[in-house]
Amino acid sequence: MKLKSLWVVVIMIIMSSCGNTSKQEDNKLTTFYFIRHAEKVKDQGNDPELTPSGISRANQWVNYFFLKDVDRILSSDFKRTRQTAAPLAKSKKLTIEIYDVRSLNGDSLLNKYKGETVVLYGHSNTINSYTNDLQSDSIYKELDEKDYDHFFKVQIDNNGKSRAQKLAMDFIE
């Protein structure tokens, strides 16, 4: 009789943990990291490559995300953003997904990547817009042209509540 009671308890625990798993998946946060491309070479036209400092900075993002799960890596279709995204994509064994800067917005990001952690590489005048779209406000201004240290993190729960932060990365020169 004791063995039968034990089995009933074990089965109930297994069933309740299965139910909790789906609840945990339902409550999974959507997280976006919006990162500006690293330093670009001047005088290379509209699609320049990264400088040696920019390459170093791109490599340092690998350290920042070392212990973080990343589901997707997005980049605009410019050399500087693809080159900034490349080291992290390689370290996480992910393919860089190219997005169209002109058609992307907060709604399209949330609809496509709900429940995932996404690192998006963009530009000083776009990453703040995506952050603001997901917050439904416009508190974050464009980054200064010389600002490569700041980035945005936005987390959204299943109820649509969002929390945005402007953060800074302490890069080694």
Characterization of this structure:
This protein has 173 residues and is an alpha/beta fold. It is built from 5 helices and 6 strands. The radius of gyration is 20 Å and the shape is globular. α2 packs parallel to α3 and α4 crosses α5. β2, α3 and β3 form a beta-alpha-beta unit. About 3% of the residues have low confidence. It has a 6-stranded mixed β-sheet with strand order 3-2-4-1-5-6, sandwiched between helices.
Q: What's the quaternary structure here? A: single chain
Order of helices and strands: HEHEHEHEHEE
The percent range for helix content is 25-40%
Strand content: 15-25%
N- to C-terminal separation?
70 Å
Total number of helices: 5
Descriptive labels:
alpha/beta, 6 strands, 40% helix, globular
Strand and helix layout:
Layout lengths: L1 H25 L3 E7 L15 H13 L7 E5 L2 H14 L3 E4 L6 H8 L3 E6 L4 H9 L14 E7 L5 E7 L5
Parallel strand pairs: 1-4, 2-3, 2-4
Antiparallel strand pairs: 1-5, 5-6
